[in-house]
């Protein structure tokens, strides 16, 4: 399974030790504002990173626990993959613990770990009671089987065990959003002297590249990327799941706000009316009324609007219905996105759910509309099939048909044919299917891996195929099939165990070209008495990696022959010596005759003649040799 970039969210009641826990895990202080340090509470989302293992870094978001900052909390957890629920041992489950838990469950954020902090402040009995309370509270929720860990962030007790649990949990997170167009909800914007506008957020879908051109929605403003950073390090591209800071050109700080979305131009549109599947919380204090004001939290956006019901005038707690939101401002969303609804006054979380139609028309009140939206909630054959493929990456035809068989018995084969004709899905070996966007991503990734390799090792004739396959983002079972397709399309070429771009020609690195040419000239000028390769490398002060690559470049290109382990001879010199020897000796010749013709000492003559034997130019007969 691919180790994809992930984001870890730390949530819970105020003063339960979320920031201290984050620091214990990451060694980073996330409370950076003077007011936060003075009041000892988190006001803004705090950001850090956690190295799961070498080369695999996770973003960590420490969200505020105070009820006044719930909007920031929701925006912070919008792109979270793994949740850490924090409960202090000395206080147990508190109001914001429960609200944060409800919000994350409504957003469908799994997996999750429950962390009991400040465990050194209580005795064993109190610690056991705190754990028991959690177990009781999460019964029947999507978190009922979640593990509970007890830690003390200040002393470090339990932190290493928790770290290992996070690593193991992260391994279960599936990669998502590759192959799609960029969607980057913005949760922070500021200016930096000498750079201009900086935006930050977690990439929901697709990838962003340095120097790329993108669009800011809902303003429809074109932007250019000047610089990208992931965890304070400059990068050329970032992909879904990664938290990025983006230096943009073409917009002032005042023109960007939290909730705006950076996208691939033309890939997404804005909307003010969406159909939804809504689930209300069982803790709801007052029933919801037809067309009542609501606040929608989706991605990092917060928008006011009205709730429209189609078969009732009031909606009670713990109810699931299809409904519509008529919004006061534009948002960027798509089918399947999760959201939270809150009541503006009195402020409370009332529920959440899933977007069914991101660009909905107005509907009539009545059962017909409910039936229509209920059908949409179950999914059309196409949306169900494409959603299954997005989740599983690669599926057989039988499994794809099974994904829609329960509702659309006879449409499977016809739908597969149509989706292939539209290039929405691609068949691999007529047995396996994947999304067209995913197929393009895998193909581009395989080519990009080769491109990067050629740029780094211009003297090498190709990349080891085994290494190429191992670095592929595609599942192992289809990587070789995709590679064979690239060969058939003449985009790549196999050279035995190596692979290269079809148009790639090995060449000197620009910064070493002159010196390598001098090495070649010395080899040619030295004739059959060239110095050892180690001596030449030292004389021309070649780095070890360049020297090794150049040696095999000369041998693989046929420009030189390896006479002895440490001696190379120019191929044209070798060929000229053979021609001289042929002209001045009979069909059978002795070592002495060869020595007189070539004027070589035994030190150089014997390896030369043995190379002639190895190349089957001559064959040894006693103390003589015969031309073949």
UniProtKB/TrEMBL annotation:
GO annotation, biological process: selenocysteine incorporation
InterPro entries referenced in this protein's UniProt entry, alphabetically: Beta-barrel_SelB (IPR057335), EF-Tu_GTPase (IPR050055), EFTu-like_2 (IPR004161), Elong_fac_SelB-wing-hlx_typ-2 (IPR015190), P-loop_NTPase (IPR027417), SelB_WHD4 (IPR015191), Small_GTP-bd (IPR005225), T_Tr_GTP-bd_dom (IPR000795)
Ranges that cross the membrane: none
A cellular-component GO term for this protein: cytosol
Keywords: Cytoplasm, Elongation factor, GTP-binding, Nucleotide-binding, Protein biosynthesis
Primary residence: cytoplasm
Domain of life per record: Bacteria
Single GO term (MF): GTP binding
Subcellular localization(s) per the UniProt record: Cytoplasm
Family annotation (Gene3D superfamilies): 1.10.10.2770, P-loop containing nucleotide triphosphate hydrolases, Translation factors, Winged helix-like DNA-binding domain superfamily/Winged helix DNA-binding domain
Domain named Tr-type G: residues: 3-174
Described function: Translation factor necessary for the incorporation of selenocysteine into proteins. It probably replaces EF-Tu for the insertion of selenocysteine directed by the UGA codon. SelB binds GTP and GDP.
Protein name per UniProt: Selenocysteine-specific elongation factor
Organism name: Pullulanibacillus camelliae
């Amino acid at each position: 399974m691919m180790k994809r970039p992930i984001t870890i969210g730390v949530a819970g009641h105020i003063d339960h030790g979320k920031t201290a826990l984050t620091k214990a895990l990451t060694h980073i202080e996330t409370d950076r504002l003077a007011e936060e340090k003075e009041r000892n509470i988190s006001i803004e989302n705090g950001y850090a990173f956690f190295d799961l293992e070498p080369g695999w870094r996770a973003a960590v978001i420490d969200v505020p626990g105070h009820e006044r900052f719930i909007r920031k909390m929701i925006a912070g957890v919008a792109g979270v993959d793994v949740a850490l629920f924090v409960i202090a041992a000395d206080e147990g489950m508190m109001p914001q613990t429960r609200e944060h838990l409800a919000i994350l469950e409504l957003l469908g954020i799994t997996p999750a770990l429950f962390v009991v902090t400040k465990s050194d402040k209580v005795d064993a009995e109190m610690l056991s009671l705190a754990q028991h309370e959690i177990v009781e509270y999460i019964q029947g929720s999507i978190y009922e089987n979640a593990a509970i860990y007890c830690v003390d962030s200040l002393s470090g007790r339990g932190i290493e065990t928790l770290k290992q649990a996070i690593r193991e949990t992260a391994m279960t997170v599936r990669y998502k959003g590759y192959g799609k167009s960029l969607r980057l909800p913005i949760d922070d914007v500021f200016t930096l002297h000498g750079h201009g506008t900086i935006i930050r957020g977690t990439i929901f879908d697709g990838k962003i590249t340095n120097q790329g051109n993108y669009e800011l929605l809902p303003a429809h403003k074109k932007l250019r990327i000047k610089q990208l950073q992931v965890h304070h390090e400059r990068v050329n591209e970032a992909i879904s799941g990664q938290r990025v800071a983006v230096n943009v050109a073409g917009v002032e700080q005042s023109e960007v706000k939290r909730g705006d979305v950076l996208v691939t131009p033309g890939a997404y549109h804005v909307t003010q009316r969406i159909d939804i599947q809504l689930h209300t919380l069982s803790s709801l204090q007052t029933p919801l009324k037809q067309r009542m004001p609501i606040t929608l939290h989706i991605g990092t956006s917060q928008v006011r609007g009205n709730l429209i019901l189609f078969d009732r005038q009031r909606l009670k707690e713990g109810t699931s219905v299809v409904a519509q939101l008529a919004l006061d401002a534009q948002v960027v969303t798509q089918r399947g996105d999760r959201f939270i609804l809150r009541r503006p006054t009195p402020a409370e979380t009332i529920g959440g759910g899933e977007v069914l139609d991101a660009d909905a028309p107005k509907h009539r009140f009545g059962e017909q509309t409910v039936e229509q939206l209920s059908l949409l909630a179950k999914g059309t054959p196409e949306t169900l099939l494409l959603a299954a493929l997005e989740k599983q990456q690669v599926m057989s035809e039988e499994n794809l048909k099974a994904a829609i068989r329960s509702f659309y018995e006879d449409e499977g084969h016809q739908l597969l044919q149509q989706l292939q004709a539209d290039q929405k899905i691609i068949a691999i070996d007529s047995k396996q299917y994947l999304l067209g966007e995913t197929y393009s991503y895998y193909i581009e990734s395989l080519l990009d891996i080769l491109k990067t390799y050629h740029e780094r090792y211009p003297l090498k004739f190709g990349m080891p195929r085994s290494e190429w396959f191992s670095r592929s983002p595609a599942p192992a079972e289809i990587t070789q099939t995709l590679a064979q397709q690239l060969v058939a399309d003449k985009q790549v070429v196999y050279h035995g165990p190596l692979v290269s771009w079809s148009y790639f020609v090995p060449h000197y690195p620009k910064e070493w070209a002159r010196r390598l040419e001098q090495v070649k000239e010395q080899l040619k000028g030295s004739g059959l008495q060239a110095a050892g390769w180690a001596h030449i490398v030292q004389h021309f002060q070649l780095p070890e990696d360049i020297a090794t690559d150049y040696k095999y470049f000369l041998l693989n290109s046929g420009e030189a022959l390896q006479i002895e382990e440490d001696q190379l001879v120019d191929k044209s010199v070798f060929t000229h010596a053979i021609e001289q020897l042929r002209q001045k000796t009979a069909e059978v010749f002795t070592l002495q005759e060869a020595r007189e013709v070539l004027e070589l000492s035994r030190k150089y003559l014997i390896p030369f003649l043995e190379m002639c034997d190895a190349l089957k130019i001559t064959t040894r007969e006693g103390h003589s040799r015969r031309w073949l």
